[in-house]
Amino acid sequence: MPNAGKGDFDVDNRRNFRFEGGQNSPYGKVSYRVLTNLGSGHGWYYNGKTEDHQMVATGRSVEALGENVINSKAGESSPVNPAKFISAKHGDIVLEAMDGDIILIGDNILMYANGVRDDKNDDGDIQMFANKGVNIQGADIKITGTNLRLIGIKDTTLVGKVYGEFAGGVINAVASSDFGASSLLGKLNSIVKSLGAF
């Protein structure tokens, strides 16, 4: 940053806002920022090798995009046609609503976890945690996995209102009354190992 080690400041005061540059701040040395009289503003801050962008709005921030973007989507195979694109070459993207909800609305919502790009372990997890409940509703719900485990710490209910089917190469069904049966110890050990996978 030119003049980064000097004490020369740029200040331009207007009636409703002001421009600044060169000052020290908690975010780094100010490269450029504009501040309003009511406490909002945005700017770029120099931190050794990078310039960070900070924006503060004391009220609502709204972006209205894509008015003239041609939407050619005809199905799931249609190419992505972004009106808003956020790309982080390094680092994480964090959305936090400290006193509100995070709401995603769209024709379709797609989530992909590709894992670390240079990692050969094919890692890539999607994890969801809730303090209370997780509610999934849909006309057709499919869950496919190499290993699938469903565990109800207290209760488990599987109901097929019209038709139900449970099939497997080998099926173990154990009730609490069978726990003392020596012939079922192998099956119980298998179940315990499955529980440990969580």
Offer a quick outline of the entry:
This protein is mainly beta and 198 residues long.
Structure notes:
The protein has 198 residues and is mostly beta strands. It is 6% helix and 16% strand. The chain has one helix at 185-196, and strands at residues 10-13, 17-21, 29-36, 41-47, 50-56. A 5-stranded antiparallel sheet has the order 1-2-3-4-5, with no helix packed on it. The protein is elongated and about 80 Å long. The protein starts with 9 loop residues before the first strand and ends with a helix.
Could you give the topology of this structure?
Layout: E1 10-13, E2 17-21, E3 29-36, E4 41-47, E5 50-56, H1 185-196
Can you give keywords for this protein?
mainly beta
**Oligomeric assembly:** single chain
Count every helix, treating DSSP H or I runs of 4 or more residues as helices.
1
Rg value: 28 Å
The coarse silhouette is elongated
Amino-to-carboxy terminus distance:
50 Å
- The side-by-side strand order for the widest beta sheet comes to 1-2-3-4-5
- Mean pLDDT reading: 84
Return the structural class: mainly beta
Overall number of strands:
5
Strand portion: 15-25%
Q: Point out poorly predicted stretches.
A: none
The biggest sheet, with number of strands, parallel, antiparallel or mixed sense and barrel status, is: 5 strands, antiparallel
Q: Helicity range of the residues?
A: under 10%
Order of helices and strands: EEEEEH
